[in-house]
Amino acid sequence: MTATTATTSTSTTPPTALHTPVIDWFDEHARDLPWRRPEAGAWGVMVSEFMLQQTPVSRVLPVYEEWLRRWPRPADLAAEPPGEAVRAWGRLGYPRRALRLHNAAAAIAERHGGEVPTDHHQLLALPGIGEYTAAAVASFAYGQRHAVLDTNVRRVFARVVTGTEYPPNATTAAERKLARLLLPEDPATAARWAAATMELGALLCTARGPECTRCPIADLCAWRGAGSPAHEGPPRRGQTYAGTDRQVRGKLLAVLREASGPVERAVLDRVWHDPEQRNRALNGLVGDGLAERLPDGRYRLPGAV
C-alpha cells in the first residue's frame, strides 16, 4: 500500500521508505529538551504538551522547569488552588491551559492514584485532554503506537506526501487516515517516528523557511518534486494581538498574578483606556474561571486567599 491510497497524494513513496531516514536524522539532530529525558516521566511529558500548544520552546523552557520543581507530581498541583496554576503560568499566553492542566491533575489524583494513566482512552477522559494531547502523552511517555498530529507534523505530511505547501486550517479526516497509514507497525518505532516528524517540522520543514537542502527526505518530497508550488488554498490565519481583547485580558491578568491579595477595581481600570473593552475582557476572565469577583467588588485569581 502506498500513501496515495489515503489522500489525493502526488507521492508514490511507500511509507516505510520514509521511516529510517527521518528517525536516523532525529537520532542525530534532536534537541536535548527536558521533557524528552527519561526522568521527565509521564507527568513531565503532559505538562510540556499543555505548555507547548501555540507557544515556542524558548518561552516554555523556564516556566516548565520552575513548574516541575514546584509540582513534581500531579497531586502536588492538585493540592493547590487553581489560581496558583494561573499565577505560575506567567506570560505563556492562553492561560485557560493552566486551568485545564490543574483540572487534569486533580482528576489524575482522584481517579488514578496520582499516576498519569497509560491507557489512551483514560487519557482522553481526563478534563482538558483532547485527541492530540492524549496521543502525544501515550506515545512520548509510554512508547505506544498512535498518530500524533500537531501543526508541524501536518505540514511535513502535506509537503512530503500530498505535495502542498500547507495543510488545511483544521485537521481533516483525510489527514488522520494518512497519519495512520504512515505509522510504523512497531510501537516503539511509531513513537520515535511521531517525535521525529514533529522535530523535522519544527527545525527544517518550517512554515516560512523550509531548509530542503538539509532535509533527510528531500528527494522523496512530493512538494519539492513538483517545484515547491505556492499555496493555493484559503489564506493562512494570522495571529493578531495588539489592541485585541486578548491583549487586554493579558494585562488585567498580569495585575492579578502579581498581586499578593485581592485587587481593587480602580487598579484594574488603569490597565486599559477603553472602558467598554476593559469591562468585556474582565467579564471574560471571570466567565472563563481565570478571575473571581468578590462581594466587595475586588478581584483575585480563582481560589486565591
UniProtKB/TrEMBL annotation:
The keyword Metal-binding applies. Pfam families: EndIII_4Fe-2S (PF10576), HHH (PF00633), HhH-GPD (PF00730). Its cofactor is [4Fe-4S] cluster. The keyword DNA damage applies. CDD domains: ENDO3c. Its EC number is 3.2.2.31. Residues 51-203 form the HhH-GPD domain. InterPro entries: DNA_glycosylase, Endonuclease-III-like_CS2, Endonuclease3_FeS-loop_motif, HhH-GPD_domain, HhH_base_excis_C, HhH_motif, MIG/MutY. Keywords: 4Fe-4S, DNA damage, DNA repair, Glycosidase, Hydrolase, Iron, Iron-sulfur, Metal-binding. Belongs to the Nth/MutY family. It catalyses: Hydrolyzes free adenine bases from 7,8-dihydro-8-oxoguanine:adenine mismatched double-stranded DNA, leaving an apurinic site. It comes from the Bacteria. It is an enzyme of class 3 (hydrolase). This is Adenine DNA glycosylase.
